[in-house]
Amino acid sequence: MRDVKNIFSLILAVIISTNIISAPDTTLNRKIPNQRLLAGCEPGQTSTELAVNNVRFVVNTGGDIWWDLTNPIYEIPAGSGIHSLFAGSLWIGGFDSFGQIHIAAMRYRNEGSDYYPGPLIAEPDNAANTSQEVCQEYDQHFYINREMVREFISYNQCLEDPDCDVNSEFPAYIIPDIILNWPAHGPSGGYSHYLAPFWDMDGDGYYNPYNGDFPFYEFVDLGYTDDPDCVRPRARMSKLYGGHTLWWVFNDNGNTHDETGAQSIVLEIQAQAFAFEEDESDINNMSFYNYQIINRSMTEYTQVYFGVWTDPDLGNPEDDYIGCDVSRGLGYAYNADEYDETTIEHTGYGSQPPAIGIDFFEGPYKDSDGWDNHTNWDTIGGIPVLDCELADVMNGNINGLNFQDGYIDNERLGMSVFMYYNNIGDGTIYTQDPSEVYQYYNYLRGYWRDNSPLYYGCTGHQSCYTTDTLTQTRFAFPGSPTTDPCGWGQNGIPQDDWTEEMLDFPSGDRRFIQSSGPFTLSPGAVNEVTVGAVWARATNGGSWASVEALQHSDDIAQNLFNKCFRVVNGPDAPELSIIESENQLIFHIYNTSSSNNYLDQYTEEDPSQIISNTSNNSIYGFNPYYNFQGYQVFQLKNAGVNFETERYDTNKVKQVFQCDIEDDIDKIINYKWSEEHNDLIPTIEVVGNNKGITHSFSLTKDAFSEDNSELVNFKEYYFVAIAYAYNDEDLFNSQNPDSHYYQKTPYIYSHHNIETHIATPHNNAPENGGTAINTSFGTKIPVEMTEGHGNSNFIIDLEDETIEEILSGCPWKTDNRKYKAGFSPIEVKIIDPLNIKNESYSLHYIDVTTNSTGELGTDESSLSSSNFIPFRYLIISSNEDTLYSDLNVQYEDMSEQLFTEWGFSITCAQNNFTGNKDRNFYQNGFLDAEIVFKDPECIWLNFVKDDDSFSSFNWIRSGVYVHTGTEWVCTNTNFDDIGDYDRNEYMENILDGTWAPYKLVSSYIDGPALHNSRNSQLITRYYPVSSVNLTITSDTTKWSRCCVVETCDNKWNQDPDCTNELLFEEYPINN
After folding, report:
1. 580-608 in b/e burial notation, b at 16+ Cβ within 10 A?
2. Which three-class secondary structure state does DSSP give residue 317?
3. Of 377, 382, 744, 750, nearest to 536 (Cα)?
4. Prior bond to 811 cis, omega within 30?
5. Who contacts 258 (Cβ-Cβ below 8 Å, separation ≥6)?
6. How far apart are CA 98 and CA 111, in angstroms?
7. Is the Cβ–Cβ distance between 343 and 82 less than 8 Å?
8. pTM score, two decimals?
9. What is the three-class DSSP state of 25?
10. Per-residue pLDDT for 98 more than 90?
11. Tens digit of each residue's pLDDT (9 = 90 or more) over 572-592
12. Would you put residue 271 in left (φ > 0), alpha (ψ -120 to 50) or beta?
């Protein structure tokens, strides 16, 4: 058997442009000369595309993103040819101590650039300078992905593990070039020693992948994190985010500021754009951007704003509206009408158009005041609730970060301003593109080009008003209902709703700025800005419904940010060991200790698990955890099949094995958006067999043969195994329109560790020295129990010799119970015939007394998932070798433990006794029943069948019926069911209702139980309900000892001649 790693290559489209091509607004005239310093840098020329989920977008090394210097490239859905964003960049501005304004910003490079590739010198003697050579060297993006790094870590762990065979676990593995050449350190000449984030395994301060150092993605499960609880302390390490990441570095001091004409701030900006490959999750429609902004100057700047400028072109850009959600820190664009038209230059989205938004997750640190500033957010019943009276609404906590977190001066500002302006041709000249230095700064602080403030209502510009009573604000179009109920934007004075839609404004091509400030930027200060682009499309309800859907998706994005971008990974794919034999393949499924599903114990929180709430629109909580549910193994048609992309093509991929936890979860359906149908389409991911977890199976048939023929010897077959997890919190229901935001992906699996396994059936007798194997996979081994109770919910059957010993005489029992193969309290199965040894084995449970809570079979001894403590066992061979189980014996969870060294497996579980409040999850513990006659043609005995009538035939009292006094029959409680003991009536259907446990039968007139108080059925001497074999035979030597007692409860129906003496004479006790 050979393993072939699936290698997924992401081809990055790198566009090298030597000419700056203007954007459409070419009518903008500027008076700033295009000057160059003799040793100055050229603007960044490299554009790199990232397309790993439902979004295809571009970033540039010159600080601008989402366009290729000519056309928009923010395509969503990927491959559709429709774009939602045209361009974006950082805008940063403030004043030095002389009152001079400093600005760094980018738009369309009409006049040039404010940003240049590469870092700045950090040493004080030559601080803030750079060179053409360094700028050219860093005119590139560095692509890395999390899976690549994780595999590298696993490879190094294997190198350090003497029990790990590197050649078999990582055949032909080569360390990727990006890991070997990661830009962890700045260039020589005074630049910062530390540049791109890396984990220093040996702590020597130098990046060396041969010592195990790696580009620093967090792997919390492996212990590689400096912030395990995600509290974001000020001194936290720089790190990479996302599943796929582009890292680059740029500055604003490599040359003159030709875009704004302003003086430089002297900033080094270490940037990363990242995305997650999350199948059908809302996260699949998102992209994220993190900027670490370092002030390399010796200047302190005041009244500083960090901003994100966005030019949203939502399909056709001429018919858009914009708005913001203050409490979420979200700016967005949506279609002004219900249909987004296609023009000659732009492809529209058509009917039910989407909305696009930018969430300003985190901005700079708030100026220190020596306090842990309080927040207006309270948590009531797990729901975040905004209380305007709880704290100072003006301190920035409404959408800020780290307020009242227990740390002094750890607060970070969020979106403090949402400002917009129009493309030329829309609105007045005072509400159009900036053309002077101060106009950039005005837009950052919520002012217009003419130095007038943004006013609440109308267009926001003073020319739109006919009254002298104007209310200044910092947030344009905060929504309906308003998302600023505390009036933060108006100095604590709430205002009415305000949207473009409600005022029926002419639509147009808008741009908007989300900024954070004002604050003080000190020399050497390090701040971060993190934003996310969120996209959503409602299935109905028009354009505004897409805004509401966007708000829900943004809650998912915000929760993801709150969790430090730690997305749910899903359970790692298991390892497969395949034993090749003649026309047969035997599979062993297992997980290594480095797997997140080791011992089948995967559980993981999903930050996308939120739900809508009518009063607050969103709520964090519920059950956000996915838990391991089962395994699936697939056969691939040939070596060319890519499981990840072709899994649902049944002509190429077929499931050949499935197992799952024994519970009530069987068919799991995910809902996936279809562009073709413009709707959510159900996809059946798995149909569980609910028979417990099995770690071994065999195949003898080829799933792709037309006649289901046997596997062919010496032919290669290809297999992929995955583990999957389940979360059932608020499942989506296509018949319930209110469930639109509910869970659409209850089934997930991990892309990590997926391998294609190649196996070739063949006669393995030569490998065994020519010895023929006299056993086969799946053969059950007989078991003898020396002490213990229970049956793991297996059907048990004693060997004839054990029955003979029990019946042979006093004490009418045996110390050692021998069970027939396949009918024992634990299942012992051959999984590798080549490894079976001529030995006997004894199994001993460890620490089982921790679950002994009372007399066996009584209510006091009943277990539950909350009070059960899992335990292990050990096996000792007759040669005195000892092995311990890796898996714990679990409560109500059947699982198979492989002992590959000895060629067999053991399956068992701890279950509750039967017949008590349905505590045994499987049919209340009822397993099977049958009547066998020696002569099947002669059925000589029948039994009284139970029914639910008000008569003597209602003799089994399973169920939940309780007399209410309104029934037509005149009765009391004589026909009440014993509702706590068999609610689902499993025991009422044994052998078609003709047999039942004594504790569940009627004790009233004509009932078979003792006619006394009802409590007589509950006394402890009737515990427990056990498995029984009843044999009726004429062979008196096998008759059991029993007392013959008159049980008729009507003395008039008794035999008058049947005295106690006569009974004993006629039916003597067998001695």
Report:
1. bbeebbbbbbbbbebbbbbbbebebebbb
2. helix
3. 744
4. yes
5. 32, 34, 35, 111, 112, 113, 114
6. 27
7. no
8. 0.77
9. coil
10. yes
11. 999 999 999 999 999 999 998
12. beta
DSSP for 586-630, written as a single string: EEEEE--TTSTTGGG--EEE-TT-EE--TTTS-EE-S--EEEEEE
Q: Please give the Cα distance from 131 to 62 (Å, whole number).
A: 16
pLDDT at 1016: 47
Give residue for tokens 């492809």: 347
Residue-wise pLDDT tens digits, 378-405 = 988 667 899 999 999 999 999 999 999 9
Question: What residue has token string 């046997």?
Answer: 710
Q: Which pLDDT band holds residue 567 (cuts at 50, 70, 90)?
A: confident
- Report whether the peptide linkage leading into residue 518 is cis, meaning its omega lies within 30 degrees of zero: yes
Amino acid at 306: F
By three-state DSSP, how is residue 692 classified?
A: strand
Retrieve residue 339's tokens: 């249909």
- Per the model's pLDDT, the better-predicted residue between 508 and 55 turns out to be 55
Distance CA 82, CA 340 (A): 11
Cα–Cα distance, 176 to 260 (Å, whole number):
41
Tokens read off for 107: 């738009």
């008159």: which residue's tokens? Answer: 1046
Q: Are 316 and 333 in contact (CB under 8 A)?
A: no
**Residue 709 or residue 197, greater confidence:** 197
Written as six digits, the tokens of 30 are 């500027």
What are the DSSP calls for 708-764, one per residue? -PBPPTT--EEEEEEEEEE--TTB--TT-GGGTTSBS--EEE--TT-EEEEE-----
DSSP 175: -
Q: Within 13 A of 723's CA, how many CA atoms are on the CB side?
A: 31
In angstroms, what is the C-alpha Rg of the chain? 37
Residues paired with residue 817 on neighbouring β-strands, in sequence order: 785
Query: Once rounded to an integer, what is the mean pLDDT over residues 801-822?
Result: 88
Structure tokens at 872: 């292990």
The candidate with the shortest Cα–Cα distance to 307, out of 261, 347, 267, 364, is 364
**Residue 775: band (very low, low, confident or very high) from pLDDT cuts 50, 70, 90:** confident
Three-state DSSP class for residue 672: strand
In terms of Cβ atoms closer than 10 Å to its own Cβ (0-12, 13-18, 19+), residue 969 is exposed
The strands making up 827-830's β-sheet, listed across from edge to edge, are 827-830, 904-908, 895-899
CA–CA separation, 307 and 93 (whole Å): 9
Strand partners, 271: 248, 291
Closest CA to 794 of 774, 814, 780: 780
Residue 903 CA: distances (Å) to CA of 504, 558, 781, 920: 76, 51, 12, 32
* CA–CA gap between residue 70 and residue 982 (Å, rounded): 73
In the three-class reduction of DSSP (H, G, I as helix; E, B as strand; rest coil), residue 285 is classed as helix
**Taking CA 355 as the corner, what is the angle to CA 354 and CA 360, rounded to the nearest 5 degrees?**
150
Start-to-end Cα distance in the chain: 63
State CA 507 to chain mean position distance. 39
Cα 412 from chain centre: 28
Neighbour count for residue 786 (Cβ, 10 Å): 9
113: helix, coil or strand? coil
By the 10 Å C-beta count (0-12 exposed, 13-18 middle, 19+ buried), 344 is classed as exposed
Residue 76 has pLDDT above 50, yes or no: yes
DSSP state for residue 281 in the 8-state scheme: S
Question: Where does residue 311 rank: exposed (0-12), middle (13-18), buried (19+ CB within 10 A)?
Answer: buried
* Antiparallel, parallel or unpaired: β 817-819 and 783-785: antiparallel
Select from 763, 332, 356 the least CA-distant residue to 514.
332
> 1003, 82, 93, 78: which is closest to 521 by C-alpha?
93
% of the chain at pLDDT higher than 70: 85
Rounded Cα distance, 594 and 228, in Å: 18
Q: Which residues pair with 473 in a beta bridge?
A: none
Sequence-distant (6+) residues with CB within 8 A of 210 are none
